[in-house]
Amino acid sequence: MLIRTRSLRTSILLFVAIGLALPALFALPVLYKSYQAEVERRIALQLDQYANILAFGAREPLWNLSPDAVRPLVEAVLSDPDVVLVTIVDRTAGPLLEIKRGAPNAQIRQTGRKVIYKERELGTVNVGVTGDTVRAQQLRQMGAFAGTALLQLGFAAVMIFWLLRRRLVAPLASLGNAADALARGELSQEIPSRGDDEIGHLASRLEVTRRELLGLFADLEAKNVALGRELEERQRSETARRESEERLSTVFALTATPMSVARKEDGLFRMVNPAWERTFGYAKGEVLGQRASDIPLWIDPEMRASCIAEIDEKGLLEGREVWMRTYDGVGLLMEASARQFRAGGEELLVWNLRDITQERAAEEALRESEQRFAALFHHAPVALCIVDLEHTAEILDVNTQFERDFGRSLSDCIGRPLARLGLWASGDDADRFDGMLNAIDEQEKISAWTVSADGTRACYDIAGRRVTLHGRACFIWSAIDVTPIINAKAEVEEINRTLEDKVARRTHDLESANRELGELLNRLQTAQTHLVQNEKLAALGRLVAGIAHELNTPIGNCLMVATTLEDHRHELNSALESGLRRSTLSEFLADLADGNDTLLRNLQRAADLVSSFKQIAVDQIGARRRVFDLREIAREIEVTLAPTFRKAGCTFANEIPAGLEFDSYPGALGQVITNLTTNAITHGFETHTGGRIKISAEVEGEQHVKLVFEDDGQGIPAENVPRIFDPFFTTKLGRGGTGLGLNIVYTIVTGVLGGAIRVESTTGEGTRFILTLPRRAPQRADDDDPGIA
């Protein structure tokens, strides 16, 4: 026995050790691959970051051929000891800057990026790194992980050895001795229990077995005697069962409600009664032997699964409403009940169904009628009250208008006698109302004075009718406030007495008011004209500022190139005096060609900007009519507002197709696009950057074009959309907003351009302005004015 115990323990310990060691051994290649992949990923990320930084930072220096301008950025990148190679190459001039350090035979990973500036490729940047720091960091992490894993394995092995010895080996030896005693037939010795674990439970079961064996030997003889009597009883039960089945079969067939017996597992039909056949239109032969999925009985097959789940949980199904389909496809709402039983080795379900389709339709109609009555009662514009005539005119319900008119809340009224509310101003009013309650006629009507909760007196026309609600005699009455009519009659009588004086006074007041309103309207129109003019001047000022900012770069570059060429000219003069060499002349000619190319590019850029500015300024100031291309107008506005787009961090997409010619007012149309753009930047991108503005157009009919201006900003709240074209409406009142930007847009589009404008906006998704413009604008009286050229 001792050898067997040690052998079991040794085997378990061996398997535990192997089970702990094998995952660690299998994990080593995976960890190594993970280490290599992480090192490669971090080195690639490092290369991409440095290459992107240098490519972005080298745009201006490559454009201006200034290596000193990019050197601080290169030195910042070289502060990382892993970076050993940085090369910046100009596309035309060749290498601009090259730095290489470190051991000659070091393993270097390199990558490159193209430098793109203003849609032109200026050159390339290359970066090389060794990755030594990344590898060292990863090796330290791997070492720490391996040490932790070894400590965990050692601690787990010690704990498993101790647990096996204490909780498995010793208890098994004790149970082995007890089992040997049971095998020898020694049933008198009690088997001790060793704790509340699996081995303890096994010892308890062995003890129960010992006790049961003692009882079984004693009961064996008595059971043999009872067996004969049980066989006779079973024969009588079988006869009674057959008789019961015959009776149940008769009841099943004669039941008026649809019933069926089906297998629980798959719904295989075993029996259906005639009522089931009549209800669903199937013949018995068409369904017996068919599964529930074979015939379209259940409208929703998931409903049957839900019913089966409820039967599994509760043992039966009671009053579950389900939708089923007849043979003709008619839907029926059935109240289903089912019970589970076992017969012939199968789990079966007996279903009892009741058609409640018409019953539920009637209930739904009644519920809708009650809801309509309740809505009509509580939202009626006159005060309504229902009192119970069988309980001293106790109030059953009042509507909202009753609460407002009489100053009593619903909780103050419900359940209280009407007489205790103190509604009536006098006893005579209360008596008239009581007389109306006790009248036999179908409908009564009185006038009475009432007092509200705050003491206000009012006269009401009160009408009522006896009704029966839920079997009780009730009285519903309404009250219409006629106090304003009475007061109006009194005022009319007073006005009639003093009509001439009042007419004279009011005529005089009306003339004074008309004069004041005229003066106010003139001042308002003057102020609006000044504000519109100021808005246009402000827009032109922003235009001038943007053009000045854009001209600064090309003119500065031209000045730098001219200064450099002047220095080279002085050097050439000096060389002529001392003897000109061919190489010196070649260098001067090459520098002259490069400088000339730079001067031409920058001067052309400045000329384009000045041309666009001149055209826009002439169009906006002169307001002259001419034939123009719609896409070119949008392009000039885009060039002019480029500084504004960069400052706001947004982009402008001109998707207008070429060839859409207009005979209209380009200045007015440019003012519309500028105002819409300013409005989008100011309001649409107020809370975030990186937005996108898009303008597109398409032909609509023969003489019109649909122009769409849209952004993906924060949108306009729904309550503000109907008012955005109103003058002086702004959400930035006191913060620079005048409320005239979109009003000017609306005025120009519908007036000068002869078109229409509408807006579509969803909060959080952006705004779309849709302009429908005629390709030939309406004629104006000042179309022949020359304007400003």
Polypeptide structure, described:
The chain is of the alpha+beta class and 789 residues long. It is built from 19 helices and 21 strands. It has helices spanning 2-57, 59-64, 67-78, 132-183, 198-254, 274-280, 284-287, 301-314, 357-378, 400-406, 410-413, 427-438, 483-497, 499-578, 582-622, 630-640, 642-648, 666-684, 741-752; strands spanning 83-90, 94-100, 109-117, 120-129, 259-263, 269-272, 316-325, 331-343, 346-355, 383-388, 394-398, 443-451, 457-469, 472-481, 626-629, 651-655, 661-664, 692-700, 704-711, 756-762, 766-774. The N and C termini lie far apart (119 Å).
Question: SSE layout and pairings?
Answer:
Elements: H1 2-57, H2 59-64, H3 67-78, E1 83-90, E2 94-100, E3 109-117, E4 120-129, H4 132-183, H5 198-254, E5 259-263, E6 269-272, H6 274-280, H7 284-287, H8 301-314, E7 316-325, E8 331-343, E9 346-355, H9 357-378, E10 383-388, E11 394-398, H10 400-406, H11 410-413, H12 427-438, E12 443-451, E13 457-469, E14 472-481, H13 483-497, H14 499-578, H15 582-622, E15 626-629, H16 630-640, H17 642-648, E16 651-655, E17 661-664, H18 666-684, E18 692-700, E19 704-711, H19 741-752, E20 756-762, E21 766-774
Parallel strand pairs: 16-18
Antiparallel strand pairs: 1-2, 1-4, 3-4, 5-6, 5-9, 7-8, 8-9, 10-11, 10-14, 12-13, 13-14, 15-17, 18-19, 19-21, 20-21
Helix pairs in contact: 1-3, 1-4, 4-5, 14-15, 15-16, 15-18, 18-19
